[in-house]
Amino acid sequence: MMELPSQFRCNGSDGYLAWLDHLLQIRTTANESLAGIDYDFRVCDSPTEMRDLILELDQGPDRARLVAGYCWDWISKQDTQRYDIAFPQHGFAMQWNLADDGQLWLLKEGSVNQIGCIHTCQGLELGYVGVIIGPDLVIRNGRWQTIPEARSRNDSSIKGYKKLQKHDPLEAARRARGIIKNTYRTLMTRGQKGCFVWASDLETNLWLKARLASQQPRALAAEEPGEYRE
Following DSSP, what letter does each residue of 13-44 receive, concatenated? Predict the structure, then answer.
């Protein structure tokens, strides 16, 4: 029987995957820096800057696409003239991927002008990916906070959260935390050559920029080996 010790994602860099787990406080790893890792990771100042990068890099086999956390309702499904994700202060407005494309959305003509979500990009590979981090994942005092209430009502991945919260709030929070963090881990590992991110929460985006600039994320106390405490 053959053993597959790792997946060939993100330029074949297990180092990037370990660094990302550390960054997202999913598990403690020794990869506190991207130094020496052949992967293009950037934090953008605006969604417009990130969109322009994606449009520029969408060339030939190196497809580039935007994706986002499922924090915005899919209103364009019913009204194709409306935008789903908009940041007027940045002059940014785009729609989710076409309703009838499913996981083939990135192959469709003009899909670089749309935004994919976790349900349509799992298992897909791109040259570069731009990720909008929504208000469901924010940094406060150096710790990631997950806010399931900020997810769209259209998102089925946290279905049952409110019911479970009434009976077992700790378990509800644990499950939602896992779903939200792993959503972004998945989105941020779609690009073979690079990943660009922008967080809609200003404090979070500034923290990410500072963390990347320092290249020396400080170690955080762990609840048990390999897991962060929240």
Answer: -HHHHHHHHHHTTSS--S----TT---EEEE-
